[in-house]
Write a structure and sequence with these properties.
The protein is 33% helix and 16% strand. With 345 residues, it is α/β, with parallel strands linked by helices. The strands form 4 sheets. The protein has a 6-stranded parallel sheet. Strands 1-11-14 form a 3-stranded antiparallel sheet, covered by helices on one side. α6 links the parallel β8 and β9. The longest helix is centred in the middle third of the chain and has 16 residues. The model has no long low-confidence stretch (mean pLDDT 97).
């Protein structure tokens, strides 16, 4: 195939940050995607309905007039979240979901949850009203090897939640391991997972290719090739429990290339091109639409988009723009280490 037309996709996990970075990165998502779930880990985080409403206004102001784009807002769960306020915000349709960050698991997560049992009343309320729970699935105990933290989280925390609240709609976000794939496949009907393009494209060797590669550093961290292969297999299978959540996470180059570089890969700009190439490489292009345009909508009980997009195969590999300018500073754009021939028409 040299050209395919599919339902316009959604991105079920994005970071827009705020301020000048927000203004620069929002158009990179709104150009190609119809809807996106926006993460709440700002400084300070999005903790209540008012925060979510004000943040959404700032996002919409940054969307180019020609783009038809809807951001879905989330609340940042803490052990002090008021379940009644959360319920009201959801029923008012001011927020779409709530995000669980284990305290210290990733960027701006210090206000997250330390003891899952302390938020069980909140999760019970979410189950009652049908509000989705989005989870960064890693334990933060420093005695646990960083490459094992997702598996240990699944065994000790996620499984506990799923057994206690089997009807709670859960998305285990940006999964990275074959253990996560197996657990999701065998888990509750209400349990699903998102997968990023960079975890499909790279294994942990990409962190150390000819030296330390800070722009490939993300959390959850890249894993062994056997895990990447498991992600590829399930993402390209059409399985309805798996869908795109890019976890596009912008940081200025100066904040990535220092003695304590920030975690995150900014992949929004060429996300669809990279994914289409991966699916073609696997000879699974017919399943691309399910992964990026259909499965997520079904999980969240939403209608699929009515608009279509066209992807065209070029005769020569694309030349990627390397950087996105933000007030004379730059964010590095993700570019996997293989040729990409597909572009959005």
């Amino acid at each position: 195939m040299n050209e395919i037309e599919i339902i316009k996709p959604d991105d079920w996990h994005v970071h827009f940050r705020d301020g000048e970075i927000l203004k620069a990165v929002v158009p990179e998502t709104s150009r190609d995607f119809s809807r996106a779930i926006v993460m709440p880990n700002l400084i300070p985080p999005v903790l209540n309905e008012k925060d979510a409403i004000e943040y959404k206004k700032r996002i919409l102001k940054a969307v180019p007039y020609k783009d038809n784009f809807t951001p879905f807002m989330t609340l940042y769960l803490t052990e002090h979240t008021n379940k009644n306020d959360l319920k009201e915000a959801y029923l008012n349709q001011s927020v779409f979901a709530a995000k669980l960050y284990p305290a210290g698991a990733t960027t701006n997560s210090s206000s997250g949850v330390k003891d899952i049992k302390r938020i069980m009343p909140i999760l019970e309320t979410m189950t009652e009203i049908g509000m989705p729970l989005l989870i960064h699935g890693e334990v933060t105990n420093k005695s646990i090897d960083i490459f094992d933290r997702e598996k240990v989280f699944i065994d000790t925390v996620l499984d506990f939640i799923c057994r206690k609240l089997p009807n709670l709609k859960i998305t285990l976000e940006h999964i990275t391991t074959k253990e996560a794939v197996l657990y999701i496949k065998q888990g509750n009907k209400s349990l699903a997972a998102s997968i990023t393009p960079h975890h499909l494209a790279l294994n942990r060797n990409a962190l150390f290719d000819g030296g330390i590669r800070p722009h490939n550093y993300c959390l959850p961290i890249l894993k062994r090739e056997k895990h990447r292969e498991a992600l590829i297999k399930v993402a390209t299978s059409g399985n309805e429990k798996f869908f795109l959540g890019s976890d596009t996470a912008p940081h200025l180059i100066a904040d990535k290339e220092n003695s304590c570089g920030c975690a995150g890969v900014f992949n929004a700009t060429y996300c669809l091109s990279v994914l289409t190439q991966i699916f073609e490489n696997e000879k699974k292009l017919p399943y691309l639409e399910k992964f990026i345009s259909i499965n997520g909508s079904k999980h969240y009980n939403l209608k699929t988009n009515k608009l279509k997009i066209k992807l065209v195969k070029t005769s020569k590999p694309l030349t990627f723009q390397k950087k996105l300018n933000v007030n004379n500073q730059n964010i590095q754009i993700f570019n996997p280490d293989f040729p990409i021939f597909w572009k959005v028409s």
